[in-house]
Amino acid sequence: MAGSEVVARRRLADRAEPQAWGWLGAFLGLCVLLVGGMLAWWAAFGFWDTLFDPGELLGLSFDGRNHLTLAVLLAFVASGTVWVRRGVLRDIEILGELAGVPATEVEETAQRNVSPSAAARGTALVLALLLAVVIIPLTGGRALDSFTGWDMHHVWAVANNVAIFFLMFEGGWLSIQNLRTLHGYMTAHLSIDLLDRGSLASIGRIGLRGAVLWLLGGTIASTLTWGMAQAAPVYVILIGLLAVATASLLLPALMARGSLREAKHSELERVRARITSARNALLSGDGARASEQAARMTGLLAYEARIESVREWPYDTPTLLRFGLLAGLAASSWLGGALVERALTALLD
Predict the structure, then answer these.
(1) Do 132 and 160 reside in the same domain of the chain?
(2) Which of 168, 255, 264, 265 has the most CB atoms within 10 Å of its CB?
(3) What DSSP line would sit under 118-166, residue for residue?
(4) What is the widest separation between alpha-carbon atoms in the chain?
(5) What is the mean pLDDT of residues 72-87?
(6) Which residue has the higher pLDDT, 183 or 17?
(7) pLDDT per residue over 161-195, tens digit each?
(8) Are residues 280 and 140 in the same domain?
(9) Is residue 126 part of a domain?
């Protein structure tokens, strides 16, 4: 390998190296920063009293609870996005090496997959701004026919919404880029060792990380519907998140499955041809040759059984079960959140 390629791989690996508790620390730090900033904003512009309502659950007003939830959601999505991108850097390096892609090209691909172009970010920002403003009247807030009644409370709300929706649109764009990269590596004759597929776990991780981020983010967002007058637009967004999370998990697996099936089929054809040759030699050979072919046949049959048992999916059963459980819990929290909130309120009244 050329010296420049070694340096490029080392740079990529250094940037992608995980840090213990880094994600959790970033999440907690952002939570403190955003919640503190929100409380300071409310106090500075005279909205402090609107945070509390003795008649509501835990004494928090609907408005106060929602804005605190939005602050936590933004902290989760922002820190989770960093976690996903670090993982993408590592997995692209592994898959690129398996596909025989030059290290410098892997470096460029990785940068594209974690750093969208200015055009992509501009488009995401425009869409986020539009949705951030429109979602307010759609969920029962002040109408858009006149902005005279809007105040600094709405400025904070719009800014928070823009940040969340921007990260969502940008994340969707990056997910598409990852799928394109994975497809390119798969069509570049990715080297598949059917007896040791640990390296191919990167395919599963690429989809699984994004799926977890979408699902958990949606679960946090689902609490916004508790007590909301018009929750239908939020449910539409949440259903979209569930669809994206499922696609994020399954599409890379489907791509990998095609390559795994092809590799498995080719290897079975090769070993069965050897079995046929050994069988013919066994049946037509003399005593010494028959013993040699019998021993060879035993090994070939064992190898054939081993190849036949290879899974054609990059996910094992426990991983799929965990994802299904997480998706079920997320969907349950989205659909049953309002009922739980009303039940708790009735018990506390």
Answers:
(1) yes
(2) 168
(3) HHHHHHHHHHHHHHHHHHHHHTTS--SS--TT--HHHHHHHHHHHHHHH
(4) 100
(5) 89
(6) 183
(7) 999 999 989 988 888 888 888 888 877 767 777 87
(8) no
(9) yes
Residue 110 sits at φ, ψ, to 5 deg, of: -60, -40
Of 303, 162, 157, residue with least CA distance to 224: 157
153 and 280 co-located in one domain: no
Q: Taking 60 as the threshold, does the pLDDT of residue 8 lie above it?
A: no
Is the same domain home to 152 and 278? Answer: no
- Regarding whether 301 and 247 lie in a shared domain, the answer is no
Which one-letter amino acid corresponds to residue 337?
A: G
Determine contact, residues 99/185, Cβ cutoff 8 Å.
yes
User: Are residues 133 and 112 part of one domain?
Assistant: yes
Q: What is the DSSP string of 264-332?
A: HHHHHHHHHHHHHHHHHHHHHS-HHHHHHHHHHHHHHHHHHHHHHTS-SSSS-HHHHHHHHHHHHHHHH
Tell me, yes or no, whether 24 lies in a domain.
no
- Rounded CA-CA distance 273/131 in Å is 61
Concatenating the DSSP letter of every residue in 193-258 gives -TT--GGGHHHHHHHHHHHHHHHHHHHHHHGGGTT-S--HHHHHHHHHHHHHHHHHHHHHHHHHHH
The residue to which tokens 């026919």 are assigned: 145
Distance between CA atoms of residues 139 and 337, nearest Å: 16
Tell me: do 250 and 275 sit in the same domain. Answer: no
Dihedral of the alpha carbons of 174, 176, 177, 183, in degrees to the nearest 10: 150
Residue 125 domain boundaries? 3-17+37-266+308-348
Q: What is the pLDDT of residues 212-234, one digit of tens each?
A: 888 888 888 877 777 666 667 77
> Is 243 found in the same domain as 109?
yes
- Answer yes or no: is 29 within a domain: no
Cβ(96)–Cβ(106) under 8 Å? Answer: yes
Residue 153 has pLDDT above 60, yes or no: yes
In the chain, % of residues over pLDDT 90: 17
Residue 57 lies in a domain: yes
Does the pLDDT at position 239 exceed 60?
yes
Q: How far is CA 190 from CA 3, 99, 138, 205, 263, in A?
A: 23, 4, 48, 17, 10
Residue for token digits 């239908």? 232
Residues in the chain: 349
